[in-house]
Structures are given as C-alpha cells and as structure tokens.
Design brief:
- Helices cover 68% and strands 0% of the residues.
- It has 205 residues and is mostly helical.
C-alpha cells in the first residue's frame, strides 16, 4: 500500500471525506503556496497580506472537503477557483461597488474563469459572479498596461518572482540583492499601482 504522503490529490480528498485528518493536513501543506500566490495580487492592490492568506486558507479547506474526484478538472484547478472565490466573496461582503472593488481586487495573471474552470453548485463559488469578475478584469487590463510601462526592468523582474509566490529572501537570492531591496521594489510597485487606480491623488507619501 502506498504511503499516505505519496497518494494523489483525489485519493487524499476521498480520505478526507471519510474523516481522515492527516490527509487533510497533507493537502493543506501541498497547496499553501497556491494560497499565497492567489492572495498576492490582492495584497499588491492594498489588502492586508496575512488576512488575505487566512481567507485563502478557508477557500482551500472548502475545496479539500468538497472536491469530487469524479470530475474532469484536477484538484488544483478546483482549489484555485475556491481560493479566489473566497477572496472575492470577502470583498463583495464589504458591499463595495464594482469600481471600488477594483481598487481592492487587482488581478495580474490569467482570467479567473478559463477553459479549465470547474463547475459546481458550491454556494461559495456561486458568490463570485462571473460577469462581475469579467468586468473587473476588463477594467483592470488597460490600467495594468499603463503600470507595466512604468516599471523598471528590475521592478518587472521582482514582480514576476513575487507573483510566483517566492518570499523576499528567495527573490533576493534570485536577483542577488538584499531582502530590503526587494521589499523596497515591491513597495514602489504598489505605489505605481495605486497611482493608476487613483490618478487624481498623490501616492508618493
């Protein structure tokens, strides 16, 4: 019999459905980096990193406990949708309108719903209205193009590593700089994002 930590995601989810806590913990460990990756773009737009990670973990746990191995989509695809849906539903719960929500939910990767999306009846996923998400994505695309033009070559490189989920220390090794230099670059990127979202305000302070 395979060791439990060698089992595929679907098999672990089946064990979780039978009350196996060790299987659940293993899936959390496997996908905690995905939670960090999903939360980072939201943080860049002004959210609180630790709060967002905690909310993302809630989405991951819901995915672990409700995944159906019989579906065509992989667990990772389903988990990513649940994590992002959780983050988005938190923003919606603040009763923000679409334009204000954009200020807090900037996304800089592929569209939320793509050809690999996993369709289920989960109430959490249903809260993430695809139309709202598409509107946010379209509104952001033009703004992000302007931001990219303002990034230095160093900042663009830092951003890529940052969105891949690397820590400041890991990025520092990659670019042969100090973690403080990486942090300074991330803060400059955040200010540039903020200036594009609030063009009439002074974001240098």
């Amino acid at each position: 019999m395979d060791k439990i930590d060698e089992l595929p995601d679907g098999a672990l989810c089946s064990l979780v459905s039978k009350g196996d806590r060790e299987a659940e913990e293993l899936l959390v460990i496997r996908y905690r980096r995905l939670v960090r990756i999903c939360a980072r773009p939201f943080f860049l737009a002004g959210g609180d990193r630790e709060d967002l990670i905690q909310e993302g973990m809630v989405g991951l746990l819901k995915a672990i406990r409700s995944y159906d191995p019989g579906k065509e989509a992989s667990f990772r695809t389903f988990a990513e949708i649940c994590i992002r849906s959780r983050l988005y539903s938190i923003l919606r719960s603040q009763k923000l309108d679409k334009h204000t929500a954009l200020d807090h939910s900037v996304r800089v990767e592929a569209p939320f719903f793509d050809s690999n999306s996993y369709t289920v009846g989960s109430s959490d996923i249903a809260q993430a209205n695809p139309e709202d998400l598409l509107i946010l994505q379209e509104s952001f695309n033009e703004m992000w193009k302007r931001v990219q033009k303002q990034l230095s070559e160093f900042e663009a490189k830092i951003l890529g590593f940052y969105l891949d989920g690397l820590s400041y220390q890991e990025i520092a090794v990659k670019v042969c700089k100090s973690p403080k230099s990486v942090d300074n670059a991330v803060q400059r990127i955040r200010r540039k994002v903020a200036r594009q979202m609030h063009p009439g305000e002074n974001s240098e302070s």
